[in-house]
């Protein structure tokens, strides 16, 4: 009951071990999504911050269609002055083209992972809510240089969820390769 919850709330996670001396200064592989979401590799404060900023589902009543995170599978520089062109389609349904296309500017000096949101204003004209609200969304992100050349592409899915009776979408983690 409440006593058990109070006891659990006072527990703290052990501090992470330092890397062996032979691995100090060498690039480490990116954290897996499962480990980051479970909070096993993040401090409790960092996990709470990430959960609030990036891992919150999108409710269709808000101004956003979906939230996402661009992440790199290997060391990949963020192109200076570049952008990410995010395209949404409904999984398993022919909607006669993309549902939405949004351009996300990439800031100079930014590092992966990068959070983004696709707003309702990015939806194609004439797209009704019933076409996408309760459906999984296919997400494609093309990373472009300032000159418009595609340097990397990533794909993911935003799962349709129900948040207290309101349709929404979970966060799409788009791995750029």
Describe this structure in words.
By secondary structure, this protein is an alpha+beta fold. Helix content is 14%, strand content 34%. It is built from three helices and ten strands; from the N terminus they run αααββββββββββ. It has helices at residues 2-10, 33-38, 44-53, and strands at residues 58-59, 64-72, 83-90, 100-105, 114-119, 137-144, 150-158, 160-163, 166-169, 172-176. It has a seven-stranded mixed beta sheet with strand order 4-3-6-7-10-2-5, with no helix packed on it. A three-stranded antiparallel beta sheet has the order 1-9-8, with no helix packed on it. A hairpin with a 5-residue loop joins strand 6 and strand 7. The longest helix has 10 residues, at 44-53. The chain is globular, with a radius of gyration of 19 Å. The termini are far apart. Residues 1-19 and 21-52 have low confidence and may be disordered.
């Amino acid at each position: 009951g409440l006593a058990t919850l109070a006891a659990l709330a006072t527990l703290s996670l052990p501090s992470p071990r330092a890397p062996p001396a032979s691995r100090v200064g060498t690039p480490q592989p990116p954290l897996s999504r499962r480990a980051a979401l479970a909070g096993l590799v993040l401090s409790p404060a960092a996990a709470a911050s990430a959960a609030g900023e990036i891992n919150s589902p999108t409710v269709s009543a808000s101004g956003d269609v979906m939230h996402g995170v661009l992440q790199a599978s290997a060391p990949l520089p963020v192109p200076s002055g570049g952008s990410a062109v995010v395209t949404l389609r409904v999984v398993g349904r022919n909607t006669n083209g993309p549902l939405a296309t949004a351009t996300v500017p990439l800031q100079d000096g930014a590092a992966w992972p990068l959070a983004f949101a696709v707003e309702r204003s990015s939806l194609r004209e004439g797209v009704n809510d019933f076409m996408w609200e309760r459906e999984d969304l296919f997400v494609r992100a093309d990373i472009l240089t300032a000159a418009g050349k595609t340097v990397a592409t990533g794909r993911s899915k935003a799962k349709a969820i129900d948040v207290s009776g309101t349709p929404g979408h979970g966060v799409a983690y788009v791995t750029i390769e």
